[in-house]
Here is the input.
Amino acid sequence: MDATTHLPRGRSTLGRGEALWGYLFIAAPLLGFLIFSAFPLLVSLFLSFTSYDLATAPRWIGTENWSRMLSVTMARVPPMTDEATGETLFRCGRETVTESRIGEFAGQTDLRGNPITCAPRLMALSDVLPSGYETVYNLSLFGNDYVLAARDPIFWISLFNTAFMLIAIPISMALALLIALALNQKIQGARFFRTLFYLPTILPIAALALVWLWILNPDYGLLNFFLKAIGLSELGSTNWLQNAYTVKPALIIMAVWRGFGYQMVIFLAGLQGVNRTLYEAAEIDGAGTWAKFRYVTWPALTPTTFFLFITSLIGALQIFQEPQIMTQGQPYFSSTMTVMVIWQNAFRDLQMGYAATQAWLLGGITMVLTVINFVLSRRWVFYD
Amino acid sequence: MTSQQLNIRVQTATTEVLGPRQREILFKIFAYALLITFALAILLPFFWMLSTAFKEERGLFVLPPQWIPNPVTFANFEKVLTPTPQANIPRAFVNSLFVALTTTLGEVFISTLAGFAFARIRFPGRQQFFGLLLVTMMIPGVVTLVPSFILFKELGWLRTLAPLIVPVLFGTAFAVFLSRQYFATLPQELEEAGKIDGANMFQIYLLIFLPLAKPIIATLFVLGFIARWNDYLGPLIYLSGGKPDTFTVPLALASLQGAYTLEWTTLMAGATLALLPIVILFFVFQRYFIESIAITGIKG
Here is the structure.
């Protein structure tokens, strides 16, 4: 390569020497790509067809991992019937009776004085579901009882939980847009506000998770203190992170608090790119504030909105740290997210093959979203 | 002003009796109210964290909460900085700084070099190789998690900092991409001048292009440092089960939670310390932060 430093030289030698420099300069990233991305990607795919516990060599098991992961079924859970008469069986209090005897319990109370209620006695799930399936979710529709079951219920529950967390995206984007619009009004201290709102998005989640654990503390936390102070004493007694109904909303509040600043800054950049003359033209046409937003600002922000939506989606699907530190997925798996399940399968249960399968599914969804974003952003984003 | 008067003002404003000037003022009032409300919502958790960190533990469980600690104590910081069998915070700071600095410096050097090559040197396959690198940006980390773990286990690197450092030293696709976009905007005459002076491509990169790339270097440095400082999943996978002396700050914080359950004063002191380097970095490099968002968000 020293040849290129000698002068004088012909044009062709210069070109060839330059090309060598080029290859040399890009060698490390390309090698890194092969070792740390392309190769693991393929190994991961291979592992998804094996059973591998790190101790013994991977054993080929075909599509078993994929079938275990994807097997879901829904079954109706019928009421049991009396073998002799074929009548539907009911459970009233602690007794099982045929339908015709329900009337006997009218007006009766149990030992504690509560009225006895009757409900159809349902068949045991083991009689309804194929073997190896466990309940993901019970639901009642039009008077019938159904059970959604899967071979790996935790995985499906985690997918549901992760999907539930996506609620944070529209909330935080709407908020981000509102604040960006406010900041765009020649506000005193706009820089201060922008800086402040952006700050939480770059701070270590591990530290913020501890802070929020304390804020969400049921007895002495800041959130419940405020809720009680404004008169919501019942809501203010919630044990946010140990209640299956409130743990995800609590995580969503934290996600919005932490994340809207990034979206706000991007919206702000988008707003500054809107063509001023369009507003002037709209004003001449007599457009009010709302009309200007609806017909000028909002259409101009479409690419920004779409970009933010997809990137937020990609980010939200990878949620791991907050629930891992704050709840460990509890209570009753109600805050168990998909990446947590993958992590547990791989590094706690040493089911490397199965974890790789789940990672491929989540990664596949993510990759599709990334490609959509990439293709579309090329179409409407200008590199200048 | 009575509420009735206010009511009338709002009514007249909405019925557009007031001119656009007054309406603008009304909007501004609304905007300020909104901004101040959310500024408080962002600030309060931090204030709460600081207030707790400087409190004595008995000041913790009182209602209404004690906003300003009385007495102010530094004992929580002393406690959290004292190594225990579960966590060694001072050591974690050294580890995190070491990882964040080495990886980021390496990443910036290697990536700008490659970005320079992709933007300014002609060689066969340039487009294809660049496309290949763009593909890397689309591979989600979760897919490569298991194989990477196996790779580092085979190399005997588990429970060391190497798995957190070495891959980044090969440069990252993202950084290559950003620096290529940047170098592509610089004028053509730059390398011509270098070539006439007999400089080789590395000299042209080092002496002409790198000094011009300060904004992009600062941006990459800031982004890289934050990503490495905040990383939790990597340390969790590669360092868990090892000695606390090898932990990075986020992992040490998480294990602090186990060591000092419900000792909020100690935990908040730990959280404060963990946030501090990023907050300082943020205020020193503020300009580049906003620039980095503009670059990565809108153009990337």
Remarks:
- The mean pLDDT of chain A is 86.
- The two ends of chain A are 35 Å apart (CA to CA).
